Amino acid sequence: MYPRPFEYVRAGSVEEALDLKSKTGGRFIAGxxxxxxxxKIRVTSPETLVDIGRLDDLRxxxxxxxxxxxxxxxxxxVASEGGNGFPAALKEAAGMIGDPQVRxxxxxxxxxxxxxxxxxxxxxxxxxxxxxxxxxxGGTRDIGAADFFTGLFESALNDDELLTAIEVGSExxxxxxxxxxxxxxxxxxxxxxxxAVVDLDGDGTCTSCTVAVGGLTPKxxxxxxxxxxxxxxxxxxxxxxxxxxxxxxxxGDDVMGDVYxxxxxxxxxxxxxxxxxLTAAASRAV
Amino acid sequence: MKVSMTVNGxxxxxxxxxxxxxxxxxxxxxxxxxTNVGCDTSQCGACTVHMDGMAVKSCTVLxxxxxxxxxxxxxxxASDGQLHPMQQAFWDAHGLQCxxxxxxxxxASVKLADGNPAITDAEVRHGLEGNFCRCTGYGNIVEAVxxxxxAMVGGES
Lengths: 286, 157
Prior knowledge:
The complex is a heterodimer. Chain A is α+β, with helices and mostly antiparallel strands. Chain A has helices spanning 14-24, 35-40, 75-79, 88-94, 100-105, 108-114, 121-128, 145-148, 226-230, 237-251, 263-284; strands spanning 7-10, 27-29, 48-51, 61-64, 66-70, 131-136, 139-144, 149-151, 154-155, 162-168, 175-183, 190-200, 206-214, 221-223. In chain A, a hairpin with a 1-residue loop joins strand 4 and strand 5. In chain A, helix 10 packs across helix 11. Chain B is globular, with a radius of gyration of 15 Å. The relative contact order of chain B is 0.17. Chain B has helices at residues 22-29, 85-92, 102-113, 121-127, 139-151; strands spanning 2-7, 10-15, 48-51, 54-57, 70-72. The A-B interface holds A 1-8, 10, 29, 32-33, 36-37, 39-41, 49, 51, 53, 76, 98-102, 104-105, 186-188 and B 1, 17-21, 24, 40-43, 45, 48, 54-57, 59-62, 64-65, 108, 111-112, 127, 129-131.
């Protein structure tokens, strides 16, 4: 189906994009792989699209101790980024989004700004403690991932701001991460997704652990209760299972179900995928 | 709005509404109806074309976003009356039944197989996650892609 009619303007710079947005009250479009499907089924119908897809300065990943991911970096680019301490969970999750064609067009910034609870990257960025850079005419503002995702399709971005980059730390030195999800077989969106970031000491004892979940919760959510189930122990099958149980308990009733996967099923599966993510993260923490 | 792009090696221009999808520009403005539309949800892959060297779903790209780009559709794969090796392999291995998904399957497979002549069953099945076939059960498609991948060596992708 066609989207409803709209005006289309193309920005040649971040400054122009911000200008066009404030003049038109429109919405930014990058790859359009979250926005266009919603426009086609007319769930949303912006009056103006401000195309930022050609702002090439925002495309690419640079290493600077950690990594700065330009907002227009595609999922394909992230999925093929390797080694040098790039977070394994992020590479892994990007490679699980949609399908190759979707990953070729969909952008990290668009995905995150869209704040779809069933999406994968918000969960990963929450667990990694990423920092989002929002640019407005007044300058830039850093927003921690935990504060960035505020609700169902809602982020902390203001109307006059453009998400321009996302920063994540590097891995190695005993830190590892992993993402695991149960996906809807048609859309490949997460039915339940979990990202684990762990630090292990020389003996393999876990010294810190952050787990974020998504897919079934209204927004990407860091689960605070898991650390106590894991920190101070080795990550064995038993600890991973205990963490899975803790995850089920913590999300409680804050779970969305649908006709394909009900609340109880999703909560059960969450435990399984938290355990898988933790085990994989521990195996990478070298 | 005016758009211009290179489609199957030919410079084309057209006037479109901003909401015109690339697939509709290709089908309706250019008359290249090999590229199909099988869903409304960016899932089925029947509309797969190559845009600036990458496989994309042309139902999820606006024609205005593709302005200035280089596009190849299924009609642009064969050259000098000779089927592309991947098209030939789909023929030889009977990687189709009704044929509706086939243009998208072939376009996705050409990129999937590029530089991987010994592609495995698992790689093909994983790599074609964005293309749905409702007839074949995929067995012959996987076989076709493997044959096509082997035949593409040294040829153009």
